[in-house]
Every structure is written in structure tokens, then in C-alpha cells.
Amino acid sequence: MRKRLVAIGMLVFCVMAMMPKAEGARPKRFLHKEPPDLTAGGKVDDRQDWALGPIGANGWVFCDSTRKGASSKARQILITMVQENGPAAGKLEVDDVIVGVSGKKFDRDARKALAEAINEAEKTENEGKLTLLVWRKGDAGDVQITLPVLGSYSRTAPFNCEKTDKIIDAASEYMKTREIKPGWIGYIDGLGMLATGREDLMPQVKKLAHDSVVPGEVLSVQKHVSMKCWHWSYKTLFLCEYFLATGDEYVLPTINEYATKIAMGQSGAGTWGHTYAAFENAGKLHGHLGGYGAINQQGLTLMIVLPLAEKCGVKNKEVSDAIVRGNNFFSYFIEKGTIPYGDHGAANSWYDDNGKSGSAAVFFDLMGNRKGASFFSDMVLASSAGGREAGHTGCFWSHLWGGVGAARGGDLSLQTYMNEMNWAFTLERQPDGRMVFQGNAGEASDEKGKPKAKWDSTGSRLLELCVPRRKLFITGKETPRESHLTEARIKQILAHGRLDVDAAARAKLTVPEIKELLKDPLPPTRSIGAKALAEKELNIVDQLMPMLASENRYERYGAAEALCNAGFGSKEAAERLISLMAKESDVTFQTYAINALVNRDKEKGLLAAAKPAIPVLLKMAVKHTADDPRRVLQHDIGRALFYNGRAQPRRGLLVEYGLEGVDRNDLLEAVREILTNENGWARSTCTWVYNEFTEDELNKMWGDIYRATKEIAPSGIMFASGVRMNGIKLMAEKRVKEGLDLTAWYVRNQKDHGKGGRMPKILETILEYGGHAKSVVPTLEAYVPYWEEKRNKRRPESPEDLHNQLKATIKKIKEMEDPPEGDKLISIAPYLYEGDKIEL
């Protein structure tokens, strides 16, 4: 649907197995690049079996493997399941192929055309009659299905709309047939039921709330429970909205307990992961996260919880401080791009990522930050035109937060969003009022004949349908109803969103049209303009250069990004960017300029002319600015100078051009600063230069290297071990006594995630010290019980078990000969910062 940064793609690959999964998803490859003709023997793969709305059937529809166009090429629907008591029962059969509606073959996206035909049939004047053109066993003919008459959507739907109210009522009646149980889906259902304002649903809602309370409950954020953040967030969100709607004080102690412990479990960077921040710093709160670090989809939900808890009367320093930390973290992304998966830079080429633009709009609205709420609601609106069917583990979160996020732009924004998304929501609707979860476009389907039941979307959809009722804070109880957008701007935003997924339309853009895109306030729109220049191989550098001096900052950002994609090696452009970058106080512009200079495409980018940026970036690396307290720009500088990994295509300028001629003092100071960056990935980028330092330079740097090896970074946890591993490796190569002690200590004090690949390397490093390693045997033996508790219970005697590896290493060390006379390790103690040295 949107282009993906390779780094984020690798991250998602690494963590996919640990996230909640859509039921039945199977990683099978696509069989088709183009739609098969199902009426001429064409075969289907397992992607994707869709619910087909209130007709009561499922069907296979071709989806583009890139997901950019989803089912835009599909012109046929193969029936895979017909519900026994649905409108299609006795009318459609499994293996029928729907090839059109109202006697005409599909000439556009078959799913969208079918959804439109369903809504047309539901009009009063059409009496619910839906006519499908169906191919069955070699013959084609009309099949008429009669649907319940719901009427027409009003021009202002979901506001003042009888059809919307009927859909809400049907969903509410379906909810009355269910047992709503505690659990994140149950809590979302509870929120949806609350949002309706229907009194007949309140007994179920009250029961769910009271079933979620344990009197006198004391929670532990230290005890590891898988997915704890996900369950606590939606539980607390539901209880907060329940209390604010009903005043039922029975739930207040639980709200207080959960909100306080959520705040206590926040990392020092203002983020959360699947579980709460690790307690590694002598028992202090707000250390680093465990696992692979920050998960902003969940972090935003928790940030919505905390101000709501304060509205419920929860007043303590833990909660108020957590709101400040989280607000500082997420506010950075306003006007820079959508919020990324974890602790990464802003995703400036995406309008939304798995619903985070929507939840960010809700959060900033609760904080009274209209700038943030408006920016992210505009991003949601643009994404509705380009499609919202891709997301990590499926599009559930995208649809959950999309509508309520769009509503932060006012009534007109929500009306437009719902109109754009109506086709998708129509196909979710079932004959019994339920809304099913459809999954990602192009993903493997459930077993045929079994609708997706695990992730029910009924409560989720009720939230956005019930925004006009303004019953909840997350549905806009205190949100201004007037839109900051004009109808002309809305039309423009939608047109830009469609360009995001329509390569053919981008190919038709003229240079003046592209330049207008480059001036837009939304970062992905500017990115589309830059992308179009590269795709069309247009060299308009002479027209981009004056834009760099524009008083319109968006135009300046757009020009810099355009030069990144289509600078065509211009020395003049590179020099201008370097000059502006050095003098700028605008962090956002500096970020765009840096990215332009390190584009690996030497033909279209500026890398070939970027070498003069090296001394400028080295000096920029040591500067701190008030508008970038987390030094995200320094992270970008670190990658621009030093990055030599494989997780992204851009490599550092020092990797490209070498260290010859580089001012060594500037180099040392830059490395020293980057080693203190909050982000572990930033720290790890520069460690390859350790081996380029002279003995005198190492003596100047040992204190910084040792500290960065000993102390894990507070964020960027997935890549935070790189700097630590490279530090112990360097000290082993230089035969540093303090390095041996630190490596032994690290056997116990490494992060848990990834330990299987890391532990053998740590033990190998200890063995490199030879007989000197005997001095740390008592320490290693003291760690044996810890690793015994973590041993592989299924294969406890396996040589690959880390407990067994540790014992084997101890045995090898004991069998080593003592070091020969005169063979001594060097000491770096004089160069270490006070209090840093590990004492075993």
C-alpha cells in the first residue's frame, strides 16, 4: 500500500511471530501476478477469502502481491462459502463466480463494485433487490438476492443518517446475543457498546466492568506476562470511559491501580513495548524496555489511557510524569510523518501505519494539542483515499483508530473518511449485524467456509459509527465539531492520497503539478512528488534550487526531498544543502538535507557529490538543540556518517569515502557524543571506527567506550546490543583487564531478547583471554543458577542450551594453562569515569 523502509521491514519480520496473529494466517506465496480467469480453468491461491457483506457469503478475490492496488485488478469473485440462513442461501453456490452486477460485467475493482451494488439495493426504492451476474458450470446468468431494506445514507452520514442508525441498531442487537468477556477484544466491544448510548446494552457493559475488577488488587509491572501492555491498555481504557459515562465508583480503585502501574512501567524514553520497562538499573523505575523495544501502536493507546485516568481523578506524580515523557516522545512526530513501529525516525512517506495516525490524533486531542490532532487527522483522511488494508497482524488497528482519528478534524472530516471507506465497511457487515475482521489485503485466508471469528470488529466499528452521539472521550465528547479543513482542501487531500497507490496517475503528473505536491503541508504528499520525479527521471534541479530559499518551510522540505530522489549528482545542489544544513536551526529541514546527501543511488541521488558534508556533519553531531531533546537528529547524523549495516540501503559517508583527511579531533568528539545518544541503534552505528583508532586515541576514548559497553541505551533496544558486543570485542583484542571483568559481568547482565545468538559470542570472547579468564571463573559459576532457570526445558541436555554452554566454558577455562610469566593484561582504569568500573 505504501513503500516500506527496509529497516522497518526487517524489524517487522523479526517481531511478527511475537504479535497477536490473525486466525489461520499462513505464510504461503502468491500464485498469481495477474488475475486468473476463473471461468476458463483459472486456479485460486489462499489469498484472499473475503466476507461479501450482508448477502451472507464469502468469496475469493485476486489481490496484487504488492498490496498497493489490493484488489483493483479483480473482475471476478469465486464463492467459497454460503451461510445457511443468509440472503444468499439457495441462490449462490460454492464455486459460483460473480462476474458482474445488474447484468453488466465488472469493469473495476470487483469488491468495490459489489459493495456499491449492495448499498444501491438497500435503498427503499430498490426494495433490497440485488442482481448478480453469476457464472456457474459454464453458463452465466442473473441471480437475484433480496437484502433487508435500510434506506440511503444521508449526505452527512454518519451524522443525521437513518441508515447509519439502523446499522448501529443491528450491531447492538448482535451484541446482546454475545457474552462479552474480559480481554482486549471484549474491552473494545464494551467501548463500542458504551458509545451507542443504548440503555439496553448497559447491563452487559456493567457486568464486563465489574468482572474486570479485583477488589484490593495490587499489580506487578516487574513480573513478565506476555502481551501485558495490550491487555492492560484496553482494559483501563474501557474502565475509564465506563466510569466517566456512569460515575460507577466501584471501578475507581482498579483504574487507579492500573493507570499508576502503567505509568511506572513506562521506559525512560516515554515508550512501552509488549510488556513494561525492565528493572535493570539497581531497581530504579523507567529503565529500558525488554524484548525488541518500543511498540508505538500500543504506546499510543497507553498514552490515551493516562489523561483519561486523570479525568477519573487519578492524581499522582507517576501518572503526570509519564504523560510528560510520552508527550515529549510522540510530539516529535507532529508534521514530520506518521509515527513508526518503534523507536525510529518519522515515517515521512506514509500517511498512516497500522492506525497510529488515528490514535495519535485522539491522543493529541485529549492533550488539547490542536496542531497535533489536526495534522494526524489529515493524515488519516489522506490514507482513506489510498487504502488502509495493510497493517502488522492485519488491518484491525487501522480500522479501529481510523474513524475516531479522522473525527478529530471535525464532522466534515469524518463524513469524508466514512464515505471513502464505506465499501470496505459494507463488506464487513453480516446478516446478523456483526462486523467481521477481514485481515490484510493479499494475506493468507482462513480455512474456506469458516468466517474470521477471532478478531470480531463489531465493537471497533461501533466506535466510529457512534461518533455523532459523542458519548465517549475517544469518540470526541469534547472535540470541536467544526472542521479546520475547507471542502477544497479535503478534495485536494483525497486526490493526493490516491496518487500514493496509483503509479499510472503519478506518471501523468506535469512538472508544475509535482512542484505543487512538494509544497504541501503533509510529508507523504511531498514524498509522492519526489517519488514522481524519480519515476519519471525528470531532472529539474535548476527549479528545485530556488525552492530551498522559500519562506514556505514545506516547500523547502519538499525541495530537499526531491533532491534526494532526483538530484542527479548535482554538485551545486549538494553544496547548497550542506551550507544550509550547517546554518539551519530547523531540525526537520536538516533531516531532509542529510537524507538527500546519503541516497545510495549515485545516478539519481547526491551521494557522488556529498563528501564535503563529512566535516559539517561531524561538527553537527556534538550540538544539542532545545527542539530536539532526544537528539533524534544526532541519530540521523550517526547513520549518515557511520552506518555500514544491511538493514537499510543507505550507507554512511565515512563508509563510502573513508577516514583519510578527516579531522581526528572532530571524529573523536562526534563518536564520544553519539555513544551517549539515547538510541541504541545510534550508538551502534559508529563502533566500527574503534579499530581505526590509534593507541593514543583509544586512551582518550576508553572511558566513553567502556561506559557505552556497560550501560544499555534507554531506547532503540532492538539494536542496543551492537555497541556493547563491539565494546567487549575491542577490549578482548586489546587484552584489557577491565574488559575481561566486564565481559564476565555481561554474561548475566545482557538483555534477554536475542540472548541465544549473543551468549555464545560473549563466551567466546572470554575464552580469547586464555588463562587470564581463570580470574572470572567464580563470577561465571555464580551465574550458573540464573541460566539454569532459563534452560531449555524440552532439551535440557542439548549442547546448544545456554546453561550448558556456560558450564562448558567454565570447564574449558579451568583446563587452560596459567598465563606465562610476563604475560599481563593492560589496564584502562586511569581512563574510566569515576564509578563506572565493574567490581566482580
Short note summarizing the structure:
The chain is mainly alpha-helical.
Descriptors for this entry?
mainly alpha, disordered N terminus, 840 residues, globular, single chain, 33 helices, 7-stranded antiparallel sheet
Describe the structure.
- The protein is mainly alpha-helical.
- The chain is 47% helix and 4% strand.
- It contains 33 helices and 7 strands.
- It has helices at residues 6-15, 110-121, 162-176, 184-196, 202-211, 228-246, 252-264, 296-311, 317-331, 356-366, 370-386, 396-406, 411-428, 458-465, 487-501, 503-507, 511-517, 523-536, 541-547, 553-566, 571-583, 587-597, 613-620, 632-642, 653-657, 664-674, 680-685, 695-710, 721-733, 737-749, 755-767, 777-789, 802-815, and strands at 49-51, 57-60, 77-82, 97-101, 104-105, 129-136, 139-146.
- Strands 1, 2, 3, 4, 5, 6 and 7 form a 7-stranded antiparallel β-sheet that branches.
- Helix 29 (721-733) packs parallel to helix 31.
- The longest helix is centred in the N-terminal third of the chain and has 19 residues, at 228-246.
- The radius of gyration is 29 Å and the shape is globular.
- It starts with 5 loop residues before the first helix and ends in a 25-residue tail after the last helix.
- Residues 1-28 have low confidence and may be disordered.
Largest sheet: 7 strands, antiparallel
Beginning-to-end CA distance, first to last residue: 53 Å
What class would the helix/strand composition place it in?
A: mainly alpha
β-strand amount: under 5%
Low-confidence blocks of residues: 1-28
Provide a count of the helices: 33
Helix content: 40-55%
Structure summary, number of beta strands: 7
Which of globular, elongated, flat, extended, rod-shaped describes the shape?
Answer: globular
The overall average pLDDT, rounded, is 90
* CA radius of gyration: 29 Å
